[in-house]
Write a structure and sequence with these properties.
Blueprint: H1 7-19, H2 24-34, H3 40-52, E1 56-61, E2 64-69, E3 74-79, E4 85-89, E5 111-114
Parallel strand pairs: 3-5
Antiparallel strand pairs: 1-2, 3-4
Helix pairs in contact: 1-2
């Protein structure tokens, strides 16, 4: 059941969208700088509600927990140098491993790790 979006929740959603991929610490810092009237408890409670309602997705990318707005299915690339996260269009090129032939696969979350074009030349 999707709940109604409060003004504070809309500000948090807007902040996540502005940041793209964000940790809770980055979101809190952004909210403090731009919307000082939203408490920490409200931010954490809203994140939980938005995840439950399917508006926001929480991902474990490397060592970080990242939040992003739910949009079309996509993969991620995480740069090991600058820590930037890039969205990649989902491709049909990924084949289901033969070990899963007797399973019913419903979803796949794929993350590539390496160096972006700027970091690979350093």
């Amino acid at each position: 059941m999707q709940r109604r979006n409060t003004a504070q929740r809309l500000r948090i959603l807007s902040a996540i969208e502005a940041l793209g991929h964000t940790t809770s610490e980055e979101l809190i810092a952004y909210m403090s700088k731009n919307n000082s009237n939203v408490s920490l408890a409200t931010i954490y409670r809203s994140l939980s509600i938005m995840i439950e309602d399917g508006q926001v997705r929480k991902l474990k990318l490397g060592d970080s927990l990242i939040y992003e707005i739910v949009k079309e299915k996509h993969y991620h690339f995480v740069c090991l140098g600058c820590k930037s996260i890039y969205d990649l269009k989902q491709s049909d090129a990924i084949k289901i491993p033969k070990e899963l032939k007797d399973f019913q696969v419903e979803d796949c979350d794929l993350t590539f790790f390496g160096y972006c074009k700027n970091c690979k030349n350093i």
